[in-house]
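To: structure desk
From: M.T.
Subject: fold request, one chain
Message: Could you run this one when you get a chance? Sequence is below, nothing fancy, just the single chain.
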Amino acid sequence: MRASNDGMTLGRALLEFGLAVPARDLLPDATAIYREYYDREGTETWMLVKYTYEYADLVRSWRLGYHLHAVGDGPPIAHAHCEPGHGLRGTESAHHFRAIEYDLREANAVFMRLYAEDRAPDCDELLPLSIDRG
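Reply: Done. Structure tokens follow.
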């Protein structure tokens, strides 16, 4: 786990931790990373302003991510990513899907259920973030 101490002086904080689920020969079958970004409101309150929760199924080479941040020039919006991919990405793909806002425990429950049931995310259940009304 990593937390930034800059929040006290800059009014911003990052909480980040990851996990790896070892299997055969201690090589991971799945990994996850959780990042939450906070801005200070007043002297006592921290507000969550952005998050990225990422799950990588290394056996099947699939990625599922839940994010809350701006997409393009708009306001922050909850969305998902679900696509082939080996490992966790540092960059965001163009594949954005609609999603509800998750908290860290809810996202982790989804990720661990996928792992426990030994199955990849079902991307067919997700709808595109943008609706084409043309």
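Reply (cont.): The chain has a mean pLDDT of 86. Let me know if you need anything else for the meeting.
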